[in-house]
Specification:
single chain, 357 residues, alpha/beta, Rossmann fold, 7-stranded mixed β-sheet, 4-stranded antiparallel β-sheet, 11 helices, 21% strand, ATP binding, Dipeptide ABC transporter ATP-binding protein, transport
């Protein structure tokens, strides 16, 4: 068999209608090998950070990704950006497979898919001025902004994200955390991308600054017709900004649906447990809410449980859960908003079946 054809850069320029898939991920896997020995290394296993994740990102929408620490959210983001090579699976951008790309074709994809990193203190080079940081993408993609226009382009980007254009000569240490994250967003916008992957962009910021950055992201989305994949721990922020939400547990997607379907009609026990832990400001409502307290620790991704990975902490678990891996699909007995993709053999809306706290 011959080698697969490498798509031309022009293939990534074709427009995608709003509501149509711009990014299609199927059975994506990323395993990190575990070895023993110094000279003669022996493969003894693998950390299954991402293990069979599938979803679509639509043009113009925000897809929120939630889950506890260590579930594979940030690894998923890095694989989508090709910062980490996928072990297996498919990532299709505008219908073109991008997991095996290199050279000019990969460069074209990275222009259209940008990333905003979690920590604004370490994602900016302290030895570079703001102008150099935001203008660096123009060095790699000179066709976006000719040399004579770059200073003006950087100042325009600073203005777009709400910073003084005269800050172009300052260094990162002269800014607050929220201002640094705005600089990171400006860098992500420099190449006029279609997709921005936000890897917990507000988790290191104060609550008041979080609101400012979220409002900025929403404004930029409508202004530049962006598609977001928004990774976060804070479920309230994800609901505020997201059109659809995907819930990850131990390297797999366990539930995905619209914000109403996930937050008001969750059917997977893990999602229900996550939602029950969200702080409620009203003491009366807090006492009336049925809190789900999970027992046991999260299993190691190097040795996940057989079948359903959540079964070791699930109050619904039965023998079938240990033998058969549940598919991420709509269960035929569910109706209305509860009828959305859920990877549980016994998917159902939360009732009195939850264990007491």
């Amino acid at each position: 068999m011959g080698a697969a054809a490498v798509p031309e850069e022009a293939a990534f320029e074709k427009p995608v209608d709003r509501g149509e898939p711009i990014l299609q991920v199927r059975e994506l896997v990323k395993h990190f090998p575990l070895t023993q020995g110094i000279i003669f290394k022996k493969l003894v296993g693998a950390v299954k950070a991402v293990d069979g994740v599938s979803f679509d990102l639509m043009q113009g929408e925000t897809l929120g990704i939630v889950g506890e620490s260590g579930c594979g959210k940030s690894t998923l983001a890095k694989v989508l950006m090709n910062l980490e090579p996928a072990t297996s699976g498919s990532i299709r951008y505008k219908g073109e497979e991008i997991t095996k790309l290199s050279g000019a074709a990969l460069k074209a994809v990275r222009r259209n898919i940008q990333m905003v990193f979690q920590d604004p203190y370490t994602s900016l080079n302290p030895r570079m001025t703001v102008g150099d940081i935001i203008g660096e993408p123009f060095e790699i993609h000179p066709e976006v902004a000719p040399k004579g226009d770059r200073r003006k382009a950087v100042q325009d980007l600073l203005d777009v994200v709400g910073l003084n254009p005269e800050y172009i000569t300052r260094y990162p240490h002269q800014f607050s955390g929220g201002q640094r994250q705005r600089i990171g967003i400006a860098r992500g916008l420099a190449l006029k991308p279609e997709i921005i992957i936000c890897d917990e962009p507000v988790s290191a910021l104060d609550v008041s600054v979080q609101a400012q950055v979220i409002n900025l992201l929403e404004k930029l989305q409508s202004e530049f017709n962006l598609s977001y994949m928004f990774i976060a721990h804070d479920l309230s922020i994800v609901r505020h900004i997201s059109d659809r939400v995907g819930v990850m547990y131990l390297g797999r997607m366990v539930e995905i649906g619209s914000d109403e379907e996930i937050y008001d009609h969750a059917t997977h026990p893990y999602t229900q447990a996550l939602l029950s832990a969200v702080p409620v400001p009203d003491p009366t409502a807090r006492d009336a809410r049925g809190r789900i307290v999970l027992t046991g620790d999260v299993p190691s991704p190097a040795n996940p449980p057989s079948g359903c990975r959540f079964r070791t902490r699930c109050w619904k678990a039965q023998e079938k859960c240990a033998v058969e891996t549940p598919a991420l699909t709509v269960r035929q007995w569910l109706e209305g908003p509860a009828a959305h993709d859920s990877a549980c053999h016994f998917a159902a809306e939360k009732e009195s079946e939850a264990p007491p706290a």
